[in-house]
Amino acid sequence: MFIDSIKNPSREFTAIPFWFLNGDLNEAEIRRQLVDFNTHGINGVVLHPRMGLSDKIEYLSEEFFYYIKYAVEVCDELNMTVVLYDEGMYPSGSAGGLIVKENPELASVGITVTDTLKTDDILICEKDLNNSSEKNMYKGFFENNE
After folding, report:
1. pLDDT digits (tens, 9 = 90+) for 44-85
2. DSSP state of 133
3. Collapsed DSSP state (helix, strand, coil) of residue 75
4. Which of 120, 123, 90 is nearest to 108 (CA)?
5. Are 81 and 54 in contact (CB under 8 A)?
6. Do 60 and 33 meet the contact criterion of CB atoms below 8 Å apart?
7. Which terminus of the chain is more solvent-facing, meaning fewer CB atoms within 10 Å of its CB: N or C?
8. Which residue ranges in the chain fall short of pLDDT 50?
9. HSE on the CB side for 103, CA within 13 Å?
10. What's the angle, vertex CA 13, arms to CA 10 and CA 15, rounded to 5?
11. Helical H runs in 8-93?
């Protein structure tokens, strides 16, 4: 009996893939893709807005939520599980650029590994690869994105 349950798991054990929401969203395509998932034994999705989402559909806008609600309603009709993913692209917490748009001082900074510095970069680490037996050493710097 246990082996049978592994070979034919119940819907609660379905794979739940990240379903990347990008391009121009529309009801017909949302329904088509969800029916296709369900038909092939994928009984749940993570609604995940991604880079590439149409410029006409701003993250967290009324239109965005219209399509999220529509996808949830179709999933309900198909008895599918829905996970709402509350990140709008990357980096985490950026809300698809809306946070920095309103608060530019909150822009992220990062450390980049390179062998070429730009004018405003600040060097934080340097290793001469020509005189080193260590093959994986690098120059690192803070990248100034202002």
Report:
1. 999 998 878 888 888 889 999 999 999 999 999 999 999 998
2. S
3. helix
4. 90
5. no
6. no
7. N
8. 135-146
9. 7
10. 125
11. 27-39, 62-77
